[in-house]
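Q: My labmate handed me this sequence with no annotations at all. I'd like to see what the chain might look like in three dimensions before we decide whether it's worth expressing. Could you predict it?
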Amino acid sequence: MIRSMTAFARLETETGQGGLSWEIRSVNHRYLEAGVRLPEELRAAEPAVRERVTSRLGRGKIDCTCRYRAPVSGSVPVQLDEDNLSRLLTACDSVSARLPASAPLNPVELLHWPGVVREEEVDTAPLVAQALELLDRTLEELVVSREREGDQIRGMLLARCDSMAGLVVTARERLPEINAAVREKLRARLAELDMPADPGRLEQELVFISQKMDVDEEVDRLDSHIEEVRRVLDRDEPVGRRLDFLMQELNREANTLGSKSADAETTKAAVELKVLIKQMREQIQSVE
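A: Here is what I predict for the chain of 288 residues:
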């Protein structure tokens, strides 16, 4: 099953150490490029996050963002560092003695001074484990979304393969009629000259013209490439680059078919083939 490179997934959860959420965005890219943004409490988990992303995704520009919300501070008792507080008060008294009219101290401002309130050390190991478990579930949701969109792209590509196959059949069926028409046209021109034509020379000219207009190989290669596209679409692996290469080959054969065409119907088929190939290439840009 092919996958699209464009997808979005978001999950969040509440833990005993606060709230966690992951947002993962994926867009088109030639290779796999993962950008990771983590809160300070989870910085140590970045290598594990990148390993999980690269193991699940093959191509695309991935933007992974984790957000952490600490527990409400009111539920935790405030612990003061008495030594730091005493030194701060002594310094404030010294400054106040030098000022003619100093404002009274605001206790709330003192609490905001660095080192006055003891910060509780958080054991980040359980938090990291919960964040990675949530990341795995978010990646799974992203992969499912990419597969769902990839299935829609696959349907559109197969429909265009069927249309191209029909155009190739039309071009193949026109070849005998085109050769017969060229023969008649050449004989008619010779008849207008009212001169006898050398049968051997006439056949040589007809063979030469037929070789210039011969598109059997191009038509066969178009059929082969279309069947290869169908086979590739059934592979369970990243196939975007392979499909892009096949589009280049299809476009080359369609160009050759159009340049050799000596018939309006064949020219029209070549033009319609190029339109379908362009539409397919636009879709394939999103395929992993």
